[in-house]
Amino acid sequence: MVTSKLSESAGFGRSLFERLSSLGLGKDLLNMQYRMHPSISYFPNANFYNNKILDGPNVKHPDYKKQYLPGRMYGSYSFINVAEGMEVFDRHSPKNVVEIAVVLQLVRRLFEASLSSKQKLSVGVVCPYSAQVSEIQEKLGKTYETYSDFTVSVKSIDGFQGGEQDVIIISTVRSNRKGAVGFLSNLQRTNVALTRARHCLWIVGNGLTLSNSGLVLDAKSRGCYFNAEEDAHLAEAIISAVIEIGQYNHLLDSNSLLFNRAKWKWSGRRK
């Protein structure tokens, strides 16, 4: 990956395959994928491969569909809207504390589900920004390292290239009124992020910030778009994070579901 605009304009962002293709060498498309559940491959296939990729018989088999957590929000493919998030810059890299709280809660619940079912489970957390990666890694610490049947890895998009996990959670980080979407503007990186999961891909992000992106529009059209506060566990995690960073305006909106949950939480604290 080339981050310098000057280097990119000079052609250093071109891959070896692009260079060979530009010189007239023929190319063949490997048109069958054996990794992703069809609901995961649907978006990248339509947006990056002109619907030329076929799903292998293994991923189309009914047994390939997994439901690790209860509820429609935790199907094979979901966009989980975290409207309360706030992006802040750690040096030159953005992070989102509220999204971090949601991601940690999801990992914790997946771990509990793996323990109770005695089922092996690998989880990957993908973040496009180094500050978010570092913060999540620090908060996780060595919590799950002693469990052989449950693994969790947190990496940047570039660090996950070529990798795959049973469940992938993408933290998009960006939360702003300008609609600045960061990594989603880079099709190669977006493609890598969206194609790492075998059974479940959950995208955590601000639906309003990403409202004009194909991700949100596609998720809504397929009925895969959910608000995080609809889940009581995620709502509690969001409330705690909002209180931690002093972003109380979200708790004072009487029209929000989060307000109703926060009201009970604060009422309980006063007792």
Automatic annotation (TrEMBL):
This is Helicase SEN1-like protein isoform X1. It comes from the Eukaryota. The keyword Nucleotide-binding applies. One of its GO terms (molecular function) is ATP binding. One of its GO terms (cellular component) is chromosome. It comes from Cinnamomum micranthum f. kanehirae. PANTHER family: DNA2/NAM7 HELICASE FAMILY, P-LOOP CONTAINING NUCLEOSIDE TRIPHOSPHATE HYDROLASES SUPERFAMILY PROTEIN. CDD domains: SF1_C_Upf1. Pfam families: AAA_12. The keyword Lyase does not apply. Keywords: ATP-binding, Helicase, Hydrolase, Nucleotide-binding. Residues 13-206 form the DNA2/NAM7 helicase-like C-terminal domain.
